[in-house]
Amino acid sequence: MAHSLGLKLYTLANRSNGAEPAERPSRPPGRLVWLHAPGPDAARTMLELARRLVDEDAVPVLLTCPAPIAPHEGVLVQPPPADHPAEARAFLDHWRPEVAVFSEGELRPALMALAEDRALPMLMADARVPRLLRRRDDWYPGLMRSTLAGFQRVLAVDEEAARSFRKAGALAVAVTGRMEEESAALPCSEPERAALARRLSTRPVWLAVDVPEAEEAAVIAAHRSVLLLLHRALLILVPKDLARADALAAALVAEGWSVARRSADEEPDGETEVFLADGGGEYGLWYRLAPVTFLGGTLLGEGCSRDPLEAAALGSALISGPKPGGHAGAHQRLARARAIRGIGSVGELSDAVGDLLAPDRAARLAQAAWAASSDGAEATEKVLAEIRRVMDGGG
């Protein structure tokens, strides 16, 4: 009774907007695993899980996420349905998954009630904190408890998370750890990297990536301070808005800086102070060349526009201001691992760069960042084992 009352109140509070759902591609024949990620951070782990299922089990995977995700071979990427009975029913009728794997703790009560009615096995992976899809102050008696009771297994990241799920009503909870993510390492041209590495081999190099206009002066001021300590230091500057590259280059030259531009096929020589990486799309190259990376937008901008795990996976020590933008989860994870240097001012930026350009200090931070970006393989294996157990008919 509590479940039906809570679900009824929830459904009334989350009425369908009447919009037609997005057109869905055809369902692949045979078996299908449905994975759901509530956001971009969770999507990284679910993409790695999807890759393993496609490569090792030859099982098609449907991955839903409200945030945009780039297409991946063998993985159908779709937005999730609205959490209302009509939309959820149409979604399940079309895709007919054999098992549904949700992540982190997001609960979609209307959809999950229908899944339970259809005897669709449900797992919760990388579980952290249980929460209803739409957080409201409304009263939904017994809804979270009854929704969690429909899961065959909840696989929690740690014991604290496990306790929160047991307290909320989950019946079968195990601690498996944090799952492995799809590799964040970006590709680059190895001959290009080797040639530039030889050219820069004796110079201290730091990278400021996706720097918005509001931070350009701060980054240049920091580099000026760094040059007082390390007179041969080179700044690789990637502007966020490549359309500003001409104006930025002209301003730097007018101020007396020696500038080389990637878009003009210029290479940094011994006199170059700022290398303007305005060619676009070569982040993997810059992360490999620079032992220290400042994440643009985090100090005076609107937040980080690049995933910090990209630099971490390639061994660059990270510096970040207080604005993580859409990558708060990755920032928190790196901060917990003491794998990112936090700053709050322009003065602290120059101090951090000068400090981390000492090779031993950059190496320690980069090692911690790499470890934070690449662990979790054992937990992923455990989640895969649960999925396979369910698909083999295990209870």
TrEMBL record:
Q: Which GO terms describe its cellular component?
A: plasma membrane
State if Membrane is listed as a keyword: yes
Regions crossing the membrane: none
Q: Which residues form the 3-deoxy-D-manno-octulosonic-acid transferase N-terminal domain?
A: 27-178
Q: In which pathway does it act?
A: Bacterial outer membrane biogenesis; LPS core biosynthesis
Pfam families hit by this protein: Glycos_transf_N
Q: Where in the cell is it found?
A: Cell membrane
Q: Which UniProt keywords apply?
A: Cell membrane, Lipopolysaccharide biosynthesis, Membrane, Transferase
What is stated as this protein's family in its record?
Belongs to the glycosyltransferase group 1 family.
What this protein is called in its record is 3-deoxy-D-manno-octulosonic acid transferase
